[in-house]
Amino acid sequence: MNADIYSDSLEQAKLRAAELRTLLEHHGWRYYVQDDPEISDAEYDALFRELVLLEERWPALKSPDSPTLRVGGEVLDSLPSYAHSLRMYSLDNVFSMEEWREFVQKMLRLLPGVREGDLSFWMEPKMDGLAMELIYEKGLLVRALTRGDGEVGEEVTANMRTVKNIPLRLRDDAGPVPFLLEARGEVLMTKKDFAALNLRQEARGAKPFANPRNAAAGSVRQLDSTVAAERPLRFLAYGLGRVVWSEPSSAETVKEEASPWNSQQECMLGLQSLGFSIAPNAALCPSVAEVETWQRALAGERKSFPFELDGAVAKLNSLPLQKRLGFTARAPRFAVAFKFEAMQAATKLEDIQIQVGRTGVLTPVAVLTPVSVGGVTVSRATLHNEDEIRAKDLRIGDKVLVRRAGDVIPEVVGPIPEKRTGEEKEFIFPSTCPECGGHVRREAGEAAWRCVNRACPAVRRESIKHFVSKAGLDIQGVGARWVEQLVDLGLVQSPADLFGLRAEKLRGLERMGEKSAANFVAALEKARTTATLPRFLCALGIRHVGEQTAKALARTFGSVEALSEATEEQLCRIPDVGPEVAAAIDDFFAEPGNKQVLADLKGLGLWPVMTVQARPARQTAAQVAARHSGIISPLAQNSLLSLLTGSEERAQGQTGENQNPLEGKKLLFTGSLSLSRSEAKALAEAAGADILSGVSRKLDFLVVGEEPGSKLDKARALGISILDEQEFLRLARTERQHS
After folding, report:
1. Which of 14, 62, 106, 126 is catalytic?
2. Taking the complete model, does pTM exceed 0.70, yes or no?
3. Domains in the chain: ranges and CATH
4. Is the pLDDT confidence value at 630 over 50?
């Protein structure tokens, strides 16, 4: 039907647009989800073109669920961050049937009265993709978030709207649609689609992707959604975040309500009925033994499976039992991943080359005759250090076995001695830096050789790449390849030089157009004015200073000047900073070249600071509960708020040193608590305590739950005070008697 018919009638156009959206979503679902199309591609394209014409004629007709959004077009300056309402956890792994049975027995110990025969499991293939959360309100897709660090992810809604099998509006023909739904799953590509994508990349002179996961992740994080629209992405749901079935009134908070889904199987079939694709071969196994049979069968199908697999996932089917088991600090206690053995292939070790990193470390890299390992072509693999080459007795010219460690990182397992011809050559580790010819040194107790020349071009190049990378200032639009070109051309000698570049100078770089050059300069300017002190400290590339340590240093000192003047003794008072880290920080600020770079950056205005307090101001119960709103569920917030408020009220009437018995103390939790780990941390913070990430002499108390593990032994060896959960709660609630 021609859209001109509606050129003078908005009402008619509105009715036809709604009809077209319904038709296109239905036929898209039949094609991409059900794999059972009802109409031809030409008929679908005709309907699609008609909707495009209508929306062009009447822009007011565009809606968030329009299939025309799938072609992309939205361009962002950056990807904003957004907190998950419920944390996205990782999975613990098992590598054998014995470990699987131990996992089952551990669950049973935490479920008194439940027998092994009462357990059934929902089984899914574990596919190599990018974890994603899709958020729907009133049936419409409103937000898409990457997993990020599990608590905060990047918003990629525009890109996810282009994925053909993601419902823009939930289907309502098989049952009720929740008011709020958070669907979680993997974004990935089939092996076939990945191979075709790489052929297209090579045809236009672009670098092929290393593996399907990298291709999916790169597509999802594009700032231009038309790029994502061109990629053959798919979303396979595997679980849920928050689900609210009925719309709350404005006068009430979200309350826990009965769900029609009482098992993992019902959740997955429910998601399927709402329009989502789920993993092929997913099935319910009614016993522990059938889980093992299913897992072995899947392993046998690994090579022929349409997606890359790195294992299988077993989830306890009963949702009430899942709730009883809860979570550890990093993973659910009711689910586990069976990891497959790494796939291996034989090839030739053509050469061993040395790469020099930003800290001067000389890393040997195996140059291999390209070989396919688990669907990924491998031509290079790190050999880590000289000791590994000797331990594995690797020689240039050897036939070697190669695998992908964790099905991701290529690794040389070792030589195949029976294939040797006598022409293989021993590799002699260089005594000078291959980049600058400078002296190399191996420190006592270290496996790595380092170039000691601070002016080494490789050290400079890698340092600048780190400065702009995700681990540094995370400057999107300033890629590693462009940094390499700028350094090689002599245009950039230090990170400070980047900020003096102008668009006209950049246009001569390979694959740098006018738009890319403008984006490059704009991204640097944004970083110059908005960088935080923790990110800036990460970007400097100080040895042993990662994200958490940088945050602690920033909170303690508040400026680069104050940090540079700190003594090693002052540094060692900071949680998680030991003598080795303190010495590395001291060395960094003593180096004249680093002092010059810092002076240059300060002169450019890239000099973030933050307010320092000896201790953060004590927060009210409501503030603490609100701060954890993106980490714990809204249903848990009410009980947490009540718990914190009670502590607050009891503390108000107390004086003297017993007022806050945990004030300023350093705590760590281990084992299973009746509270969730996030709730326990919130309660400790409300009482004035600091939470550490590991056992050290700085720790005041280790709070121990059931099955505490090795942290308890280490704490006892160091003489650290041990608290059980009830003792911790008494201290947190300030219920001690006055002395």
Report:
1. 126
2. no
3. 3-63 (1.10.287.610), 93-339 (3.30.470.30), 348-450 (2.40.50.140), 462-604 (1.10.150.20), 621-732 (3.40.50.10190)
4. no
